[in-house]
Amino acid sequence: MHILMRNVDSPRSEQKWRLHPLIHSLSSGGILLHVGVGQKGQKCELKYVMQSLTGLSRGLDKIYEGKTEDWNEMIDTNIKGLLYVTRIVLPGMVKRNKGHIINIGSIAGHEAYPGGNVYSSTKFAVNGLTKSFRIDLLGKNIKVSSVDPGLVETEFSIVRYSGDEEKAKNTYKGLTPLIARDIAETVFFCANRPEHVNIDEIIMTPVAQASTAYVHREK
Question: What are phi and psi of 128, to 5 degrees?
C-alpha cells in the first residue's frame, strides 16, 4: 500500500504528488504502517492507494502435464494474495470514505495463450475481482483501477523458468518489451487523476505485441 502526498504549505507550482510506501510489513497479525512520510510541521494532503502486484507464473506446461504444486503456488499468490491484502486494507478506506485500489493484472486476464492455462485463469480472476470491487464499493468514494500489461521485462520470466536466465531472455528476444518504469508511470497516472475521475482499466503492450499470441520479432 502507498500514499500519494503533497506539501500544501509549499508554493502551488511546487505542490507535486509523490508516492510513498505505507505498508512496512504484512503478516497474519496485521499491517505495520510507516506514517512519518512528511517533514515535522508540514501540512500535507494525502491519498491512500493500494497497489496490488500479485503476479507469479510457473512454466508453460500443457494442462495435462502441469504440476499441481505449481498450480497451487500461482493460485495462492495471484488470487489469494490479492484477496487477503484487500480484505485487510479495504475496511480502513471504507471508514475514511476515501481510497484507491490499483490492481496489476495482465493481458493474460483477457485472452488465454498456449501453456498459460492456470496463470491465465488467475489473471482472469483478478480481472473479475477488480470489476466486482468496483461494484461493491460504489457509493464509498473509493476508486478501483486495473493496469494490465503485456510483455514486461522484469524477473517475471526468470521465476517462470525457475531461474533459467537464458530461457527468460528469449522471451523478449527480437523486440523492445515494456519495462517496470512504464508500468509505474501508468499506475501513477491512474492515481493522480482528479477526484471525480476513475480509470477503470488500462491495457498496455509493447508496439511489437498485438495480443498474447501475436508478437513481431526482428530477426
Answer: -65, -40
171-185 per-position pLDDT tens digit:
889 999 999 899 989
Judge whether 84 counts as a catalytic residue. Answer: no
CA distance 208 to 47: 35
Sign of the Cα torsion 139, 141, 142, 143 reads positive
Task: Tell which wins on pLDDT, 20 or 140.
Answer: 140
Q: What pTM does this model have?
A: 0.78
Task: State the catalytic residue, choosing from 64, 84, 113, 119.
Answer: 119
> How far lies 160's CA from each of 126, 155, 174, in Å?
19, 9, 20
Rounded Cα distance between 11 and 52, Å, is 33
